[in-house]
Design brief:
The structure holds two protein chains of two kinds. Chain A is mainly α. Chain A has one domain. Chain A is built from seven helices and no strands. Chain A has helices at residues 2-22, 40-46, 60-68, 82-94, 103-111, 125-130, 136-139. In chain B, α1 packs antiparallel against α5 and α2 packs across α5. Chain B has one domain: Orthogonal Bundle (Cytochrome Bc1 Complex, Chain D, domain 2), CATH 1.10.760. Chain B is mainly alpha-helical. Chain B is 56% helix and 6% strand. Chain B is globular. Chain B is built from five helices and four strands, in the order ααββαββαα. In chain B, the strands form two sheets. Chain B has a two-stranded antiparallel sheet. In chain B, strands 3-4 form a two-stranded antiparallel sheet. Classes of the chains: A mainly alpha, B mainly alpha. The A-B interface holds A 47-51, 71, 75-81, 144-146, 148-149, 152 and B 59, 79-83, 105, 108-110, 112-113.
Chain lengths: 171, 135
């Protein structure tokens, strides 16, 4: 009788553990991947010159600062008409890293000090720790250009998918 | 017969393309006359010189339209963020200069990036005349 009970306890704990693991881990029950988001203006305007960055890659205060300084956007003039700028700013804020419930956005957000408002995703501690094995010379390859060109290595970056299975570093 | 229809369709679409760029040129012509009473017209060769003219930007780098669009407007260019820019020559890329808002948006940005000032209607017209002239 005692042995039978021990067995039951063992089976129950194994299945409970695997259920917990399947749901995404112990400390964080949120989803791993950034959700699909869509806004036609964001897509057209923000992918005119560079890859399309998912709003979940930066907190709201970063997007607000970025959208307030489009005339000097990383050294280039990326001005928009007021209506387009406001629509895109609202969309970015609504879906920003601090308004998302997925693991990657949460971690990016947590890696930024409260007093900092980074404009470059590559300046966040989350990014630098994830890419510490990538040499500076790799980022400078002609096929990549710079650390800003996520999609050069992360094939599904524009969908917000940065999973390991979607990485291929070009020569 | 089918080929004839295809030919006709192609012919009229080409006409429509040249038409939209020319409509835009007419608008710039009106503006250029307001800017300069002695305006005599747009010239492709002036546009060509404008396209290739290198100047020293206040950030210390040399820039021209060709920096990103390449020296040959029939070829695709590349943005500083490594994205392809479709060819500028209208013969290669019929979509060019068909959307006035888009044209003004990019003149607005790129003139400030290259010249650090707005372009004049004369410059815009010469630029389009050049890109229309490339076969």
């Amino acid at each position: 009788m005692k042995k039978w009970l021990q067995f039951l306890v063992l089976i129950t704990s194994i299945s409970a553990t695997s259920a917990l693991l399947a749901s995404g881990g112990f400390s964080d029950n949120s989803k791993q991947a950034m959700p699909a988001v869509a806004n036609a203006k964001w897509k057209t305007e923000c992918s005119g010159c560079h890859m399309l960055y998912h709003p979940g890659l930066l907190p709201e205060r970063s997007w607000n600062k970025m959208m307030a300084g489009l005339d000097k956007h990383f050294g280039e003039n990326a001005s928009l008409d007021d209506a387009s700028r406001d629509e895109i700013a609202r969309f970015l804020a609504l879906n920003s890293a601090d308004k998302q419930d997925n693991r990657r956005s949460n971690r990016i957000n947590q890696s930024i000090p409260a007093g900092a408002t980074p404009l470059r995703i590559s300046e966040t501690r989350y990014f630098t720790s994830k890419h510490d094995e990538i040499a500076a010379s790799t980022f400078k390859r002609k096929s990549i250009g710079s650390a800003a060109n996520c999609v050069a290595c992360h094939q599904a970056a524009e969908k917000g998918d940065f999973s390991e299975s979607q990485i291929r570093i070009p020569r | 017969m089918r080929n004839a229809y295809l030919f006709l369709a192609l012919f009229f679409s080409q006409q429509a393309v040249a038409e939209s760029a020319n409509t835009l040129l007419k608008k710039y012509e009106l503006l250029a006359k307001q800017e300069n009473a002695a305006f005599v017209g747009f010239a492709a060769d002036k546009g060509e010189r404008f396209f290739h003219a290198e100047r020293l930007h206040s950030d210390g780098k040399k820039v021209s339209c060709a920096t990103c669009h390449t020296a040959d407007p029939r070829k695709p260019g590349k943005t500083r963020a490594n994205k392809v820019i479709e060819a500028m020559a209208i013969s290669v890329n019929p979509q060019r200069f068909s959307d006035e808002a888009k044209v003004e948006k990019w003149f607005g940005r790129n003139c400030k990036d290259v010249l650090e000032r707005a372009c004049t209607a004369q410059e815009k017209g010469d630029f389009i005349a050049y890109l229309l002239s490339i076969k």
